[in-house]
Write a structure and sequence with these properties.
The chain is mostly helical. It has helices at 3-18, 56-78, 89-97, 104-124, 136-146, 149-162, 210-213, 217-224, 230-242; strands at 167-173, 180-186, 197-203. It has 2 domains: 56-124, Helix Hairpins; 136-242, minor pseudopilin epsh fold (3-Layer(bab) Sandwich). Strand 1 (167-173) and strand 2 (180-186) form a beta hairpin. The structure holds manganese (II) ion (MN). Residues 62, 66, 120, 203, 205, 207-208 line the site of manganese (II) ion (MN).
């Protein structure tokens, strides 16, 4: 070791001794975070897979930053509970279905960030680069509820376009499990709170489309109609009828 190295290591040692947080080994490491009760799952396809309907940059920011922030903030709120939650999808589903039963100090966080996590998970898995169509029982249920698939799409475009501010447009099964319906929720509220079973959800926050579509929300809604994963929607419908 030459003089220069000795001097450099001495300076580092002095700095580390003076400022405990400045230990060289700590550089480049992520700061300690709250426990990850819930985790962000990877996208079920590549971020560019939905182009040209949704662009890769929007997907990366939407999933990696916005969705991640809901997960992080949910975990931070849960870390304040005296007993650790299980962190299962069933647990989150239970909270969102009965928010009044959630401890008051975390209720708003569960509603907003827990709702954000639930809604986005459902959204990513509602989309696919493959072309799919509603078939079988689902196609019949759509026709019975809306008159035709075209009429269902028209109602989706109309109601989605009319959401004031940020929210979601949903295809749901009603609480009696009799009929499909098109509903909307504000912010990150979920259809679960009203007893509806969400079969399909489309994010109508500006962060979902602004980079590519700017103020043209109708164009975004039309584009998303091309990449709906109707196979997944049919699975959710069949599962809901059996439950
Ligand atoms: Mn979003």
């Amino acid at each position: 070791m030459n003089r220069r190295h000795l001097l450099a290591s001495g300076l580092l040692a002095t700095a580390a001794a003076t400022l405990p947080g400045l230990c060289p080994a700590a550089f480049g490491q992520a700061p300690a975070t709250a426990k990850e009760f819930f985790k962000l799952a990877p996208l079920p396809y590549a971020p560019e897979a939905l182009e040209p309907h949704i662009d890769a940059q929007t997907m990366m920011i939407h999933h990696g930053k916005h969705h991640q922030a809901y997960v992080t903030k949910l975990n931070e709120a849960l870390a304040t509970l005296p007993t650790a939650p299980q962190g299962t999808p069933e647990e989150l589903h239970g909270w969102l279905s009965n928010l009044d039963a959630v401890p008051e100090k975390i209720r708003t966080a569960v509603r907003n960030h827990g709702g954000g996590h639930f809604n986005h998970d459902l959204f990513w898995n509602s989309l696919t680069p493959k072309k799919t169509e509603p078939t079988g029982d689902l196609a019949r249920a759509l026709e019975s509820a809306f008159g035709s698939e075209e009429a269902a799409t028209a109602e989706y475009l109309d109601k989605g376009g009319k959401i004031f501010g940020s929210g979601w447009i949903w295809l749901v099964l009603d609480p009696k499990k009799k009929a499909l319906a098109m509903t909307t929720t504000p912010n990150q509220d979920t259809p679960l709170a009203a007893g509806h079973v969400p079969l399909l959800g489309v994010d109508v926050w500006e962060h979902a489309y602004y980079l590519k579509y700017q103020n043209k929300r109708a164009d975004y809604l039309k584009a998303v109609a091309n990449i709906i994963n109707w196979d997944v929607v049919a699975e959710r419908y069949a599962k809901a009828l059996k439950a």
